[in-house]
């Protein structure tokens, strides 16, 4: 990925089903859960590096004993930082009290972070700022054990402002505008309600106040609470939470936009945003890790029983295809195949762009995430050549000489590592014109990998803004003197904002949008652009059901190829000699490569929730009025 669109989040939940002493005996440490959580978070660090957080709950503690702990960080290496803090604390306790080392009960009573229910989160923000206050997990504290709520999520709601207003209408006074707080308070409201009702009922049954508490915990129905809380959520989400007494849940949105996977055996239940995190950390095969179905939640009760519950009516599955193209780790068995397929399906377009001249073409990729699609692309080039070779050999027949045969077999796709990503370079004087020269050096090249007048095909997973391509990659590649540089994107053109967890909320950031705008200018059709703006304004106050995505009209006059060619023009730095061509994946090929993850609103404008059209509408108004802000 040459452009940084790193915005996602990762969640992990671990529930230890056996007493802590079991893990001490079997694995040598009662901190088994903490260690596993560290690994689960590290294995998902790709999903978020703005901040990280950890929380844990100890089961069955006595009044007055601490049973919840939390630690959060926005340091440079936030996961490392929180586990450094946790380790420091544990080691200090062990130094002060060497007798704790073999005494699991003493560890549980005196050392924080150890616990049976654990929640981890890695963050890239889509809402609010990147401050420590915005880092998950969030905590809603109460003196009643089961009214404590800890929440973390991979999510973005299109209607978070409305949800916030609803809380205010309920008479609440939220102390923060953070979207996670709004969502948490929504769950908290119905949790409070449920607890109050149960308490009344249990008192009626003749139990004392003290007896009521464990009975409430037992009878609490998280599925009902979640159903009421999530009723009006419009967005993509995998929301994870824990209640003070030890129940836990992960709820996935009805369209399955955000991912969530789980695994259970007789020692643990684990939930994560990505399957390979669970596979690697617990050494379990692919088949054993299941997806949480859209609209469903996994609920793990304090007693260790767990179940999958339908919370909201599932809608047509629209799992985010960007997870497959870029966000998730490519180590997932399915995602690995899909990325290769994406590369393969681009090959016919590439062949056309190089006029079938494989002999004078070097194939390469932009490090690091495009590597897998590169393998798919190269394999297809090999298949193509093999077919050609077969034809040639068969046409000559048995009289073929060794020399002829050798010449035919000797042609192979030329694959090279051309571009090298260096550590982020510092730009010393940001306003200075020398800045561009510094930026150009973020990437480097392998000298001698391309011959003068070769075609250079270089694959990337997506082109969002294209800034790095223009400012760094194309300039540095041009130094190798290729005749033509063909940049291939394994994702289609990004034309519409995301509002479900990726921070791409401004239209004018997209190079595809800029290209379509330039085409409108070239064609003197800016009146059409104004007409779209007027239509957007007219429906600004309309109900979500009625809003139409008129931004589609903005792209409609142009073919995808016209827009790609314009992008090529916009991204070519004036001083480079090579001709630049940009090739994008088609939507059809994307669907073919990722058949189970057809969520494609950023490419097609087809939003799976009603709020999506409102967001794109607002984004267009923002663009037209020159407002540089998120549209949700
Ligand atoms: N990428 C995400 O899932 C972000 C979660 C949440 N909206 C936040 O900004 O903290």
From TrEMBL:
One of its GO terms (molecular function) is glycosyltransferase activity. Keywords: Glutamine amidotransferase, Glycosyltransferase, Transferase. PROSITE patterns: GATASE_TYPE_2. The keyword Glycosyltransferase applies. Residues 9-303 form the Glutamine amidotransferase type-2 domain. It comes from the Bacteria. The keyword Glycosyltransferase applies. SUPFAM superfamilies: N-terminal nucleophile aminohydrolases (Ntn hydrolases), PRTase-like. This is Amidophosphoribosyltransferase. The lineage of its organism: Bacteria, Pseudomonadati, Bacteroidota, Flavobacteriia, Flavobacteriales.
